[in-house]
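Onboarding guide, step 5: your first structure request.
Type a short instruction followed by the sequence, for example:

Predict the 3D structure of this protein.
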Amino acid sequence: MRGMKKNFLVRAFFGITIVALGGVLLLRNLEIIKFDSWNVFWGTVWAAGLVLAGLMTIVSSQKLLARAWGLLLMAAGVSIGLNAYGVIDVSIWKLFWPVVLIAVGLMMVFSVGSGNCKRVEKLTADDRENEKVAIFYGEESRVRGEYTGGSATAIFGGVELDLRQAKIKDGAVIDVFTFCGGITISLPDDVIVKNEVRGVFGGSDDKTVPKPSAKKTIYLKGECVLGGLEIK
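The system replies with structure tokens like these:
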């Protein structure tokens, strides 16, 4: 899946969820329908969301730990869905904290020896998998070499994308989406930022100061929903 397609899936999911919620509330308030099955509604939403988040995490990362986290999210989503429809009778909250403790412990074990070094990626113009996805965790990336554009998605997590040592192509586009998360993009002073990101109960802050000789332009597009974007 390309970065743009992943962002499209995320936007489509949240858009459909919001439309469905608004539609149910409107019809219920107009007394056209009677709807009290909120447990099933939210169980379906959380189940679909966690399964989608887990699938995106598995597909977008080559790290064993990240893929294990993706499987964990998918398992949680399936459990919530089955519980909402009465197939199983197990409270997800009884399993939540033990599983979180196990996940945190595994993260500590696998991160031993890695220090605080950021991941360095040498990208060329032929690399098209320049998407960064962080769902319920953090993603740090420092890019060197050619950068032709990509995407960044943060859902209940954070993405730090450092492009200060990258050779950014003029007209490059970064597609951004946040939901209850944050994205930080660091850029060199030889590019001009065109920030076209929309805020929905969120926003973006452009702190870049390009030098007078800067000619290249980079475009930032997308949405920040209950989240934020910092450009520096």
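Each response can be followed by summary notes, for example: The radius of gyration is 20 Å.
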